[in-house]
Amino acid sequence: MKTATTTSTSNPKMASVGLRVVLLMGEGAIVAAGQYSYTAPDGTEVLVTYVADENGFQPQSDLLPVAPLFPHPIPEFVLEQIAFAAEQDRLRALEESHERPSVRNPSGTYRAPQ
């Protein structure tokens, strides 16, 4: 395994930039990890740490938005609609398995005139 580390402050708005690259021999994988920081227009100091690997670029910061936790509560009316649809599907399958006439198939005995 080979590693390399670099640090750069070429951009005056960035306090620090670091990069660590890990090359895994034989597998061809490259992993980069590091951090950077800057001052936002409102004066807030922003620090972002990151890892880039086979799972993609994965930044982390207190200022990045986060998706809500799942599963979130499902409203009761939605659960009732799901149950209703499941019951309708069950009845339709039962109807089709018994080949009973239904609204979708009004007559199973219709034949063309002779």
Give the helices and strands, then pairings.
Elements: E1 2-8, E2 14-24, E3 29-39, E4 45-53, E5 56-60, H1 76-98
Antiparallel strand pairs: 1-2, 2-3, 3-4, 4-5
Q: State the total count of DSSP E strands.
A: 5
Strand residue content: 35-45%
Whole-number mean pLDDT: 75
Structural class from helices and strands?
alpha+beta
Q: Which regions contain 5 or more consecutive residues with pLDDT less than 50?
A: 12-21
* Radius of gyration using CA atoms only: 30 Å
Shape: elongated
Helix coverage percent:
10-25%
First and last CA, distance: 83 Å
Sheet with the most strands, sense and barrel status: 5 strands, antiparallel
Counting DSSP H or I runs of 4 or more residues, the number of helices is: 1
Main sheet: strand order: 1-2-3-4-5
| N-to-C order of helices and strands | EEEEEH
Could you explain the architecture of this structure?
There is one protein chain. This protein is an alpha+beta fold and about 110 residues long. It has a domain at about 1-60. It has one helix spanning about 75-100; strands at about 1-10, 15-25, 30-40, 45-55, 55-60. The chain has a five-stranded antiparallel sheet, with no helix packed on it. A hairpin with a 5-residue loop joins strand 3 (about 30-40) and strand 4. It is elongated, with a radius of gyration of 30 Å.
